[in-house]
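thread: overnight batch results

M.L. [08:02]
morning all. the overnight job finished for the chain we discussed friday. pasting input first so we're all looking at the same thing
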Amino acid sequence: METPLISCDDHLDLNMLPANVWSDRLSSKWGDQVPHVEELENGTAQWVCGSQRWGGWAGKPSGFSGPKPIHTAYDRGGIEDVTELRAGNAALRLQDMDRDHVWGHLVFGPVTSIKTDDEQLMRDCYAAYNDWLHEDFCTHAPDRLIGVAMLPPHPEPAIAELKRLAKRGGVKQANLQIAVCEPRLEDKRWEPLFDLLEESGIVLSFHVTVFPSATKAFDKYKGSAGATFLHAKMFIEQFLDPFVDLFAWGILERHPGLKIVIAESGVGWVPWVVEELDYRHWRLWECADFWDDKGGIPHKKKPSEVFRNQVYGTFQQSPTAMRLTEFWGPENLLWASDYPHPDSIWPNSEKTISETMAHMNPDMVRQIVGGNAAKLYGLDLSKATVKGRLAIGDQARAA
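M.L. [08:03]
and the structure it wrote out:
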């Protein structure tokens, strides 16, 4: 069958950003603190902001040779020269999307890369990136490139930036790098953010980060083959506390119009957690008389009901999740290619979808690979001129 594919978790990392993202937009008052690219003695290049080194820039050859400890989508797709900054070059990115037969990308920006001790500079850096994303990058193909705004990881600057974005319009989703957010979500300082998200209709996402500073998981094991397996633990570990907080402290129930996307954390672990939350909800209400003189129980709805109405999850390939669609419901799963990260299935999205969803109802597949995203983000799939060809249902059996 043919159907438009909307990938709901794709990337534009620091290493792929054009060198002028911040220098063209930040006030001259910041001088050499403005984030910029510096070439090193060995010919490679890094992003620098004041005394902070943010990370490498791919616009210069890395000088690396020999076997790689980790492959990206580019490696698997036969692209050896990344100095063209394909992810950050709209024309080249669209070529890569066409090659994968994917119509749309939700474009997540650099994860935990904006680092400075100056709070105002930090705020200005987030704002400058968000403006560049929506005014310079996504405008090359606004129906296909859907920019995910970045929010600072602390309440007051996050609220200020969200207010600015809501006022300017055109922003469909904003991301909190939840692994480094402080304080925890039950803190009342976050409440105005949830209010504003609900009022504006902007979707909130939490995206996983693989940086060791998020959990210190790799410090002891760095350089060992076993460290590769720690990602399985770390992805869930980053999300578990904030995910449970959404229900335990009534955040979602108080804000029924708030939509949350949990991105790249996997979705197979979620059903058990929600099932356990439902059980704890029952245990709470089993003892309702205990709470009568203590203000009562504010948790009126079952967590699974709240979850079904307000939470979405992205995945690349998950045979497990595809057998849990009854739990997730027909509208809450969002397919993703994760371009161009190591976990990405680019440029083999059609093949991977066909292999993992062949047994499913074709109408449900259409929803998961594009329809759900179109509904959540208000996208018009009738404009799609690029469509995926999938072997699903009878077509898969015939093949």
